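Subject: Predicted fold for Acyl-[acyl-carrier-protein]--UDP-N-acetylglucosamine O-acyltransferase, 259 residues

User T.R. writes:
Posting the sequence so we have a shared reference for the thread.
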Amino acid sequence: MKSKIHPSAIVDAKAEIDSNVEIGPFCIIKGGVKIKKGTKLLSNVIVEGITEIGENCVFHPFTSIGFRPQDLKYKAEETRLVVGNGNIVREYTSIHRASVGGDSVTSIGDNNFLMAYVHVAHDCKIGSNVILTNAATLAGHIVVEDHAYIGGVVAIHQFTRIGRYAMVGGFSGIGQDIPPYMIAAGARAKLFGPNTIGLQRHGFSEKTINEIKKAYKILFREKRTLKDALKRVQEEFPSSTEVRHIVEFIEKNKRGICR
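User M.O. replies:
I've generated the structure tokens; pasting them so everyone works from the same file.
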């Protein structure tokens, strides 16, 4: 099946548009863009740069994809944006390609939901099954692991990491890493404990959730040094994959851990 391209759309001759792609009215595709089958650009979508978009994505009106990064160090180096499969990107969202100083790739995984007015800056690494609610703003070099939920009007500082299955409440400012499986919120965010309801909804067992709760208490509620607390949870839960991930996440932090 041939691509369906509206007569008012402008598509660069260098772009590679796969079969069964729909490009709606007033869309603009500039440069070496690659779009795989089943993806839809509804209308007024602009895609440029070295940008690769996977299968069965939907881009709503007035989204800006693959634009040059908002970074004064960037001098038109060849950098990329890679978007996976099954993503939904709502109105007025912007996703920028990478800058210099990293691996030159901004990446977004599969089956993510980016609501209206979301901004994903250069060099971000977004996993899969992530929800970014309206006006969530991600600065450069941010990592968001799988199944994380970011509330509305949240601002996240450069180089910060959000762990898997974590939930960040709306109107929060995130300046330090949010550990996996936790809830955080606040103008200067702090932890409020494990994301129990979210974990239950995703099918985590009661045993696993209890292990995460106990690990949280040892790490963040008992009067221990972080080094001692990490050692304690490893000794107490040697076979827990989830607790091991929390420990590894904390050990790799560079900006500090939200407490």
